[in-house]
C-alpha cells in the first residue's frame, strides 16, 4: 500500500512537471531568431540537411542583423529542369514579414505554384527535415500524460 501511494504521488508530480515544462516552452525568450542561411549549392544544404558542425556555425545567422522584422525561418524548395530531369533547389534563410499588415501565423508548409515554402519560429528550425510546430508536440505530450493518468 505504501509503495502504491508513493507511486501515485510521484506520478502526480510527473504530470505537474510535464504541464509546467510545457508552459515554460511557450514563453518566448527575448533573443534574436537564428536561422540557417544557405542554398542547395552548399554541400549538405539540399533536400537533406547534413551540414558539418563547422558549416552549421558558418551558415547560422542572427536574423535581426539582416532583417529587423524577421519573424520566422524558412525553407523553400523549387524545381529546375536539367537534362529532362527536375532538380530540387533548396533555399534556407530568415523570413522577413515587413510587407505584411497581418500578424504572421506560421503553418507547416505551403504549396505555391511549383514551390514548397515551410516556415518555423524556433532557432535553427529550418535545419530539420520536416518542420513540426513545437506547440503540437507539447500538446500531444500533455494529452498523453493526462490520458495515462486517467486510465492508470
Features of the shown structure:
152 residues; alpha+beta; 2 domains; two-stranded antiparallel sheet; 28% strand; globular
Kindly give the count of domains.
2
The N- to C-terminal Cα distance equals 16 Å
What is the CATH domain class of the largest domain? Mainly Beta
Q: Into which percent range does the helicity of residues fall?
A: 25-40%
Q: What CATH architecture of the largest domain do you see?
A: Ribbon
Reported by name, the CATH topology of the largest domain is CD59
* Count of DSSP H/I helices: 4
Report the biggest beta sheet as strand number plus sense, adding barrel if it closes. 5 strands, antiparallel
* Number of strand segments: 7
The CATH superfamily name of the largest domain is CD59
Strand order of the largest sheet: 2-5-4-7-6
Overall average residue pLDDT: 76
Radius of gyration: 20 Å
Strand content: 25-35%
Instruction: Give me the secondary-structure category.
Output: alpha+beta
Give the SSE string.
HEEHEHEEEEH
Shape, principal axes of CA atoms = globular
